[in-house]
Amino acid sequence: MIRRNPAFATATIVIAALAAATCSNKSSSPSSPTPTTSITTPTLVSPAQGAQVSDLAQPITLAVQNATTTGSNPLTYNFEVATDSQFANRVYSKSGVTAGTSGQTSQQIDRLTAGQPYFWRARAEDLTSVVVSAWASAGFSIGAGIRFDAPAANEPLNGDRAGGARPLMRVRNSTRDASVGSVTYTFEVAETPDFQTGLVTGTANEGAGGYSGITEWRVTKDLTAKVYYWRVKGVSSAGSSPYMTATAFTPWPDEIDASQVTYLHGPSIANWPLTRTLKSATQGTPEPDMVCTYFTRQGNGDWPPVDFYGEGAELGTYVEGTQWYFAKINGKWYAVAGEWFRPGQTCKSGQLAQDIGHDATQEEPIHSWVPKPGELVGYAVSGPARNYPQMKGKDERSQIILVPWK
Fold first, then answer.
1. 167 shares its domain with 84
2. Does one domain contain both 270 and 386?
C-alpha cells in the first residue's frame, strides 16, 4: 500500500551534477573524444516522490520509464537507495539491470529498515560508448514496522512422504499484529526449489480444515512419487508475509487401485478423503502376533472417538479408527475392515497368519486367507469402519501401502 506523504510535497528532485543535461561521458581524461551518443534521463515511476510505503509492501520494487538513446547500443540501468539525498550512505545498489521490454524497467530491492525516510535514484547507461544519463532521484519513506510472520510447515515436514497423489498441505498460521487483519494463505507446490517448474498454486482462508491454529489446502492435480517442494505465504489487504522456508516432500499415492478392490465387513473407502499419511505398518513386532500402524495426527482428536458398543460411559471404551487389511487372492484384491484401535493406539495383537483373516470376517475368501512369508499385504487406516454405519466416525483414511508378510 503506497500513500503520498505531504512532508515530501516540496522536496526537490535531486539530479547529480553533470556537464550536459541529458548525457555524460564517464571518462575524465582531457584527451577523450566528446561522445556523439546522448541518453535521456529515465522517468521515475514507483515509488513516486513523497510516497509512504507500508512495511508490509516490502520488499519493494523500483520502476522507471525507459530512457531513449541516439545510439544503437542497448541500455542498462543503475539503481541506488540511500538514507540521505546525497547518496553518501547507500543501503542498496544494483547496476547492469537489463532494460525492460514493456517500456519500463524494474528492480526488486532488499528489505529496508522500517520507520524511516529513504532516497532512490536511477540512470540509464550505455557502457559500450561510456555514456550515461543524468540521475533521476526521489524521496520516499517506509512506514512503522508491522509484524506479519511467515506461516510454518505443519505437514508434510521437510523430507516427509505425504499420503495420496493429491496430498493435504497444512501450515501453522502466521503470528501477526492485529493491524494486519484477516489473512488468506497462498500455497505453491513445484518440482524445483526455485518454484519455476511444474508449479501448482492455490489459496485457502485461514482456518480451512477446521483445526485450531492450522490452515490446510489440498493439491489440485495428481502428483507422482518423486520429490516436490512447497511453500506458503500469508496475504492480507495490508500486504503479505514472507514465504515459509521451502520444504521438500514426496507424494505417496495408493499402492493399489482402491476403486478396484472388493470390500468385506466394511464400506468401500475408495472415495474417502485421504487426510492421513500411513508412515509405516509393521507385522510381527514388537510381538509375533502384532500388526502396528503408524500414521500422522494419530490420537490428537481429529478423528473423534466413537462409543464402542455403548461401553463408553460405563467403561470408558472408545475407538478412533480401524486397521484395514488388503489381500490379493486368485489375482483379485480384497479388503477387510480389521481391528479397531483406541485413540493413540498403534498396535493390535492376535494377528498371526492363521488369525488375521479368520478373525476379521466370516466372509470368503478373506475368512480362509492365510498370508505366506514374502506375500505383499496391504494396509491402511481409516475412521471407524466396522459395524458401519452404526458406529460411524469421520469418513477419512490414509493411503494404502504394501508390506511383505514376515
1. no
2. yes
Extract the residue ranges of the chain whose pLDDT is less than 50.
Answer: 1-34
Say how far apart CA 397 and CA 274 lie, in whole Å. Answer: 5
Q: d(Cα 377, Cα 404) in Å, to the nearest integer?
A: 6
Residue 147 falls within a domain, yes or no?
no
Grid cell, residue 381, equals 487406516
Sign of torsion over alpha carbons 183, 187, 192, 198 = negative
Half-sphere exposure at residue 206, Cβ-oriented, CA atoms within 13 angstroms:
16
Helix (H) or strand (E) holding 212: none
One domain, residues 317 and 385: yes
Query: Residue 41 sits in which domain range?
Result: 2-142
Q: Are 318 and 305 in contact (CB under 8 A)?
A: yes
Q: For residue range 179-214, what is the model confidence (pLDDT) as tens digits?
A: 999 999 999 999 999 999 999 999 999 999 988 999
Q: How far, in Å, CA of 386 to CA of 405, rounded?
A: 23
First-to-last C-alpha distance (Å) of the chain: 63
**Domain stops at, among 194, 228, 252:** 252
- The structure's pTM equals 0.75
Q: What is the pLDDT of residue 11?
A: 38
